[in-house]
């Protein structure tokens, strides 16, 4: 699975799913898809009312050429809310700042009312931001409901088989900020 190596070389280890889980998602989930060209690699789920981008990677030699923005624009044309997760911007890690700026520049908003805590394969917790784009204005409660579905259908897909537990229990991983 050469595509998995590309992802694994780019994304932080704690964000990577087990390769077996990703392969099972691609083979058995009616929602999960992979698109790969020489310029990019994207794994996403398309549900009836929203899209969840699990991994988006533009190859290093093609970054800054508008490829990622064109891909997001193509997804926006479906007229559905788009959700994705991103590491909090950290001035010590310029890649996190660049990623956040990229999504904000492309019209995504940070779900600032939702606290999202994930667990890696070893059970260590880490925080992620939920970013969303919507074709029409909706309350963040809608973002929360759609994110619960993404956790259940994608992150937890056969998670007991690959990790021995639920990775992103929506009742624990997602909560309203006060």
TrEMBL record:
It is an enzyme of class 2 (transferase). Its EC number is 2.3.1.-. It holds the Pfam family Acetyltransf_7. InterPro entries: Acyl_CoA_acyltransferase, GNAT_dom. Signal peptide: none annotated. It comes from the Bacteria. Residues 1-133 form the N-acetyltransferase domain. GO terms for molecular function: acyltransferase activity. Keywords: Acyltransferase, Transferase. This is GNAT family N-acetyltransferase. It comes from Marinicrinis lubricantis.
